[in-house]
Amino acid sequence: SKPSHSRSVIETMKRPPVMLETVFLAATASVAAAVAWRNDALASFDPAAVREQSIAAVQRVAGVSQHAAGYVALALGVVALALVVWLARAVYDVLYAPFDRMDLRIDPWLGTDSRKDRVKRVGAMPPPYPNGWFRIVCSQDVARDDPGCVISERVLGRLFSVFRGRGGTFIVEASCPRCGATMDGENGARAVFEENAVQCGGCGTEYDGRTGDERGKENGDDDRVFTPSYDCSECNGHIYIWHDAQGREPYMKLMRPAAMNDGSFLWHGRTEHIVTCHAAEIPENGADVAHLNILHQTSIFKSLEGILFHQWTADWRAGKSDDADDWYQTHIVITQKMKLSREPDRLVIPGSGVHVEVTQSGPGLVFLHFDMPIGRCWVIEAVTPISPMRCKYHHIIFAQWRVPRLVARWVLHSLITQAERDVPVWNHKVYLNKPLIVRGDGPIAQFRRWFKQFYCDESMALARRLHPDLSLLYNSN
Question: Region 389-417: what's the mean pLDDT?
């Protein structure tokens, strides 16, 4: 059996299997088909058609590239337009836009009860609300193109409504005595322009702007109500309210520089800070001559601190008591120079001097007159108490028509940069009734004697009626 098995294997190896034969036949058929296809392709080959197809393919690729290039160009155009608009806005803001920074707060926690250990110690302060004229809002805040505009503002411990009528500007207390609603445009109140009145948005009651009486009711009507009205005046780009604890008619004249009211000077901007201090401490800065060359000596430019310095001189005097138009004013002449040394009068930069004439009119208004080679500017500094230890510190600037807005903005910016060095000091200081003043500190004592004339016997009594807890604040020394 074994030899027969060996012969079968050998015979099998000598004879090709069926699968190999099949592969061989398939390969032979494929080669024959390829040769036939090549012969047909060579017979039908057209160089012109191939060239046209190649050109069409290239054109399709070029078209796609052109579309892509168009989209890229469009995107770049949009980016360029955005940059141009941004640059134009930046140029407008710097050269043409008014300087407008309102409701600025530094150390906002001061005066709050959120942290008992951070409530300010106030010291032995005078009454919080001296008698005089105070700025309540800017003229532009009460829209002239809207006869029904009414806004409310909290100052002097009360909430007031300010509106216009055919007879002028009017101020009344904002709380409606009939329904308790606040008479403000946001709460539906409207000014009745033709009738010089304001209408409550809650109950529809109308109150006369001059007297505060309810309109449509006679004096004998039992249900007749009224809301207190107050003397006011509009000038210098501001609306002012008269405050007197005894309810007397205005006995101080508002300072009205003609340049601010006849159109010869242009309005260029405003700022407002919320300060935690007594209303007397801010204007007292003018009499504190010594602090000028301490707190305000270094440059307002951060990069030039230690290189560029300010040198100040100031002369303060109170108005004459026998002059009816001057007794409620003080006058300061300030001169500022730039120098490259801390030493007085050393390395002074020629032509860097600025001369400023300052007039304080009443307890809450200070007028600064800048005389520069390029023109003149007026700045009004308004201090209005909101509550016993909270004040609005407002600035507004006017300049001659030939003074570029960029220069006017720079004047106001420089002034505010210096003022913001004082704000943290005011926020944290304690009012000293008898400070230890030495020679060279300035006429602080004279200023305080002058400021006392704006109080009367009823000043503290009125403050206690408005703020029943006032004794807690004044006894927190």
Answer: 90
For 434-443, the CB contacts below 8 A with 24+ separation are: 440/290, 441/288, 441/289, 441/290, 442/287, 442/288, 442/289, 442/290, 442/314, 442/316, 443/287, 443/289, 443/316, 443/317
Beta bridge partners, 378, equal 369, 398
Give pLDDT, residue 16: 46
**pTM assigned to the model:** 0.76
Beta bridge partners of residue 164, listed in sequence order: 169
Say how far apart CA 263 and CA 260 lie, in whole Å. 6
pLDDT in tens, 223-270: 678 899 999 999 999 999 999 999 999 999 999 998 888 888 999 989
Under the phi-then-psi rule, with left for phi > 0, alpha for psi from -120 to 50, and beta for the rest, what region is 188?
left
Torsion angle of alpha carbons 42, 44, 48, 51, nearest 10°?
Answer: -60
List, as one string, the DSSP characters of 120-154. Answer: PP-BS---S--SEEEEEEEGGGS-TT-TT-EEEEE
Residue 51, pLDDT score: 62
- The token pair at 355 is 């001369």
Task: Tell me the DSSP string of 151-195.
Answer: EEEEETTEEEEEEEETTEEEEEESB-TTT--B--GGGT-EEEGGG
Q: How would residue 350 be classed by pLDDT, with cut points 50, 70 and 90?
A: confident
Task: Calculate the CA dihedral of residues 205, 211, 217, 219 and round it to 10 degrees.
Answer: 150
Burial string for 344-367 (b: 16+ CB within 10 Å, else e) reads eeeebeeeeeeebebbbbbbbbbb
Both tokens of residue 223?
């249900």
319 CB-side CA count, 13 A: 17
Tell me if residue 477 falls in helix, strand or coil: coil
Count of CB atoms situated within 10 Å of the CB of 464: 14
172 conformational bin, left if phi > 0, alpha if psi -120 to 50, beta if neither: beta
How many other C-beta atoms are found inside a 10 Å radius of the C-beta of residue 272? 18
Q: Hey, which residues does 317 pair with through a beta bridge?
A: 331
User: Rounded to whole angstroms, how far apart are CA atoms 428 and 289?
Assistant: 20
**Can you give the C-alpha Rg of the chain in angstroms?**
42
**Identity of the residue numbered 99:** F
- Count of positions (residues) in the chain: 477
